[in-house]
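Need the bound structure for adenosine-5'-diphosphate, inputs here:
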Amino acid sequence: MARVSVEGIVKRYGTVAALDEVSLDFEDGGLFALLGPSGSGKTTLLRAIAGFVFPDRGRIRIGDQPVERVPVEKRDIGMMFQNYALFPNMSVADNVGFGLRVRKVGAAEERRRVGEALELVQLEGFGGRKPHELSGGQRQRVALARAIVTNPRVLLLDEPLSALDKALRVDMQFELRRIQREIGITTILVTHDQEEALTLSDRIGILRDGRLVQAGPPREVYDAPADLFAATFLGEANILPGVGAGLVAPEGAAPGAVLAVRPEAIAMTRTEPEGAGLSRCAGVLERRVFAGAMATCLVRREDGGEMKVVSRDQDIPAGLAEGELVWLSWPVEKTLVIPAGAQAGAG
Ligand code: ADP
Ligand code: MG
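Answer from helper R.:
Posting the output first, comments after.
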């Protein structure tokens, strides 16, 4: 396997900078999720690493090898893109073995490796079928088997699961993670599904307008977003009145910093909570919505601001009704401090 790194990548299409000085390291054997709104440059970055797009500037390394001038077929990369297509008239085994035949590995070797790949994606015994005889999820597995059968150094996945319905997508996410761990392949997964990125990956990176906003372990980015865009893109955040507006602010929070708190960090009580180290505010419960085991509440603060609270239903005071006065509190260290000046890009 191999580490991948890009350094100062720029790619322009006319006046649009699809990638604007992007630098990132993808750890050897890690699963990196690349996140960002539509048009932020995710696919362009993946295609640059694969060799389908040639950057105007910057370096790309796979392992220790600079690959800017290396053609696609010599980069040793496995790929599965959003609009992947299996060859409809080929059997599953022939689809999976395609890359091996291109590399002329020989029939016996091809049979053995196709068998291994199908076993890995739990499709043993499906080799003789045609793609139309498979479910959507099974076709996805075949595409994955085809991407990894050549033992590539890097696996690039561009929204591979976005066409699947929710339940199947969640299954495939776990499946993907299991396979990725099992073969230990450096993987870059493009997704616009924040939850997918948070649950699956070792590290994430957020792109916006061709620029890297932030990269790091999911927990770290979630708990310490670099700017307001990262804070609200990766999850929900209640924006609080500024430092000095009556809420207990974390120590060292500079005046002008934006304070925020995640909906699930907040506890809701009938009476004012005791205790140092808690940030708190009062408000009126405006709405309470059930969603399975969790409930979402909307609370109007005294200053007019709205707070969203997400908690387990049993953690909400019994009998609490819309229109009642409630207290919201959370540990001070759960307050997100978004540095002043870092919001410039959020407008
Ligand atoms: P994402 O995958 O994050 O949705 P893309 O990498 O596909 O974003 O696109 C980034 C930007 O570059 C967009 O503004 C897109 O319109 C532009 N772009 C991408 N590919 C091309 C191309 N081949 N020609 C012109 N513009 C392109
Ligand atoms: Mg894309």
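Comments: The domain at 4-229 is CATH 3.40.50.300 (Rossmann fold). Residues 42-43 surround magnesium ion (ligand 2) (CB under 6 Å).
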